[in-house]
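## retry 2 of 3
previous attempt timed out at serialization; input unchanged, resubmitting
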Amino acid sequence: MEEKNKKLIVYVVSDSIGETAEFVVKAVSSQFNSGHVDIRRVPFVNDVETIHEVLEEASLGKAMIAYTLVLPELRRVIREESKKLNIVAVDVMGPMMDAFSELIGVDPHMEPGLIRRLDEEYFRRVAAIEFAVKYDDGKDPRGILLADVVLIGVSRTSKTPLSMYLANKHLKVANLPLVPEVEPPEELFWIPAGKIIGLTINPRQLNEIRKERLKALGLHGQANYASYERILEELDYAEKIMRKLGCPIFDVSNKAVEEVANKILQIVREEPEDGE
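## retry succeeded, writing output
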């Protein structure tokens, strides 16, 4: 009777942090009253000695093993040794991994902690996209100081599409429109020129782009925004600002976003850190 009421100890053994196996154990134990289960996580297991220690401890009481081990050798040891000690050991991830391998016809990477690294990469990308949205079109000049890259240029030079593309490459990007009637924020002159990318475009192409933009908005195509004279004025002003900053300048005329973005990535990744 005492053994029946005794808490079951589940050792969660993993070559990463053990979240996957612990989640499964908690989900199952909830069906049997979770208060009767003591979960003990053993993370970052990468040697046979640790497995033997856990099994020895588990053999002393009412216990079982739930494991997520990627390396075949460690899975083999825990499977064979648990049988010898009459300990229930459940391979949480192995059967699914074997099934994938059989159906896809490709061997797994056998890299412990890979899902964690993939999760970190995903959240970095999401954070960069949120940053690009927050600091799009000069909404908040404080983003200039926080950004990995700042894109500047007149309206309709692909600043926003480029920001989103680069954000998917994990870069925090702020973008800022240059308008003759508005002085650029002083923060723009506080950061290294290598972090700023100037965007320019052929005036005739910009004229057509802006006309189409006005049509899409249901506005008159002859508005000052799309006039050739106004465009020349804006481009001239933008070039003066870019020259003053000493930043790289890219002509986006007839170029795909991917092409320009890849050139920007080359510059940003070659730029040395401050103090180097």
